[in-house]
Amino acid sequence: MTTIHTGPATSLRVVSARDIRTVEDAEQWAEGHRGELRATVAESGAVLVRGLDLRDAGGVAAVARRLANELMVEREGFAKRHVYSPGVYSSSAWTDDMPMCMHHELSYARTFPGMMMFACLSLADSGGEVEIADARSVLSALPAERFAGFTGDGWQLVRNYHPETGIPWQEAFGTEDRAELEAYCTANGITVEWRPGGLLRTRQARPAVLTHPITGARCWFNQIAFLNEWTMLEDIREYLVYEFGRDGLPFNTAHADGKPLTAAVVDELNNVYERHAVTVPWQPGDLLLVDNISTAHSRKPFTGSREVIVAMGDPVDRTTL
Question: What is the pTM of this model?
Fold first, then answer.
């Protein structure tokens, strides 16, 4: 096992699999190294496994089932995915020329994956690299006074499910029954508002910092910057505000009391992430394991096409933390 140091207080561990010729070989290798890999992910935040020769979603699913305690079905997703099997998906549909900023998967949900698995099947012509950032280091780097409100009170996410953009609520929540949706939201601390024309608006407040259940480290864990209006490209933000109004944006984040964020605060957050970002030097066939609490991830803009398969493992109920 080698370690690549490419950012402040951040490292990426790299493990090479040997003698992999078939999916069965990859499964057996994963099973045999499961304990070591999981321990390393918990310690360092991420591990890149090279040499598994993963070629399709079926092979990724087979290996992911060996490494995870349990695969997790996504609910409350914010972008379209293709579902290959329960817990195994395509990467989120996101505009190629827009960066997918640093975030922790489903950090706004009550139940989120403890481990993310990203398999690279093909590289883009240019760009499209995955980056990671240590959430412990990010928390330490944030100016304490400016971000005390978040670390103390948390943050708020507001979503408007428009049929013209984003993902329909029926797809996000896995049901077409309003009563079932409302029951889920009540159980998960989400406020529901039905607006004219059947438009759904949801609102949920979450902590911005979590204590890691294994290491005990405090981690900056949220999507405050990623899902905020000021992270959008200017022309896209202006178009969405024109179409739906600022209160009707498909998603937006705020302080826990609903107070809007300033562009300066969001820029500072993204700048801290950028200073701690580590680019993953992956190749087709590689598998990246990421501790979803201690490590944020992002995706650079790209040209051409790329194929990445995502598996979500080890669901965590935040009420147990």
Answer: 0.94
